[in-house]
Amino acid sequence: MTKTVIIAGARTPFGKLGGALSSFTASELGVKQLAQHSKEQGLQKIKLTK
Fold first, then answer.
1. 15 Cβ neighbours under 8 A, 6+ residues apart
2. 37-49 pLDDT, tens digit each
3. 15-38 tens-digit pLDDT
4. Is 24 exposed, middle or buried (0-12, 13-18, 19+ CB in 10 A)?
5. Angle at the Cα of 7 from the Cα atoms of 14 and 31, rounded to 5 degrees
6. Distances 28 to 2, 33, 34, 37 between C-alpha atoms, Å
7. Is 23 exposed, middle or buried (0-12, 13-18, 19+ CB in 10 A)?
């Protein structure tokens, strides 16, 4: 069985209904969080496709 290990943690943005983040979808907020985490870890950018 493969073990899963958490190597870092970060808070994701959240706000109130109709607030400053309401124009973003959950996916867009996730992409922003992943991009920041990748930058902090020094990971190279790659193009992801569906």
1. 21, 22
2. 888 888 887 777 7
3. 788 888 888 888 888 888 888 888
4. middle
5. 40
6. 30, 9, 10, 14
7. exposed
